[in-house]
Structure prediction request, 404 residues.
Amino acid sequence: MEAAATRSSQETIAQFDKYVIPNYGRYPISLVRGEGSYVWDAEGNRYLDLFPGWGCNILGHCPAPVVEAVQKQVANLVHIPNSWYIEAQGDFAEAICTRSFGKAFFCNSGAEANEGALKLARLHGMKENRYRVITFERGFHGRTLATTAATAQPKYHEGLGPLVAGFDYAPYGDLAAVEELVGDETAAIMIEPVQGEGGVQIPPDGYLEGLRRIADDNGCLLIFDEVQTCMGRTGSWFGYQQFNVKPDVLTMAKGIAAGVACGAVITTNELAPDLRPGMHASTFGGNPIAMAAGCATVKMIEDEGLLDNVADMSARLRSHFEELKSELSIIEEIRTCGMMIGVELSIPSTPAVGKCMQKGVLINATQGTVIRLLPALNVTADQVDEGCAVIAEVIREMAADAGD
Ligand SMILES: Cc1ncc(COP(=O)(O)O)c(C=O)c1O
Prediction:
């Protein structure tokens, strides 16, 4: 298939250098087309994408049912503000709430969803003067000022002070530390059921149940940031269902609409009225295009039995990496939850990204030593085998350089 480029990667890079604020580290490649788990650059090179859209392209690139739904919607209504009703928003709210609970509020991103959840927690807590929120080391909740403050990683705070007040940071995995921090002013405990950017950290047995109990005992809310773990990513519709612990509030974004910008807050019927008219809103939130894409995403996951594929492909990925671990001592730990894969190395993982890219495979590195994959829910066994063979080759090279 021919690439849809109108200019070379170098020409696009030159244009960015002139007109785009340089706040991102970008790979020196312009991507022009995608299909499933493959993308093509302007020069016609094909890449196997095991980190499509940083988790947003949950069905790979340009899934046909979502493309068709967006095309159909865009020809009817592009944007309608929330001062009117639209069918697509009702349909998508029904689709996600019947697979979880309660009622939904729509926005456009993960940070915006978390802002909504934090405002809901404060609005709910204000009757008892509760406004503080406990979050966790290595967590990641977004880049707005409040969600940056919620993110307990000092590297994201540098130069932004004074931070939004009211956040207390707990070490991850330590229930006693949360018991110490929780108090009369605590409005909520907020956590990712599986930490993503933090290196695919799986909660220890009983940990999320323990947080649920602490929240209940102390009269505060439990918020799950499911921006990364929603929409089948973990093998169930939502991450909380893997651990059988129901939050009071959950937030979604990333894969929610298969790559179309969208976010959501879901909360219980009892709490929903706390986000009362006039206190929170989003102009583009719940727009017809995102809602149509979201409905098509849910339908495709269901129609194609993709939650089962997640379980199968997760096991396949894990066994590839376990085999490699038995060969190489630089692999310290393999952490998987559905289509969230973390491979912890004893050496820096970042060089693996460029080396894999040169060999035609796109991956991510996080927290300095973790190789991270967020493959599409519909990744195939052949693609898993192809990708793991390349990653193994690269890790073997890195091990040899490190003297392993
Ligand atoms: C768990 C989690 N929460 C929030 C965010 C922020 O989402 P967004 O970049 O859409 O604002 C991210 C993004 O990586 C995330 O992984």
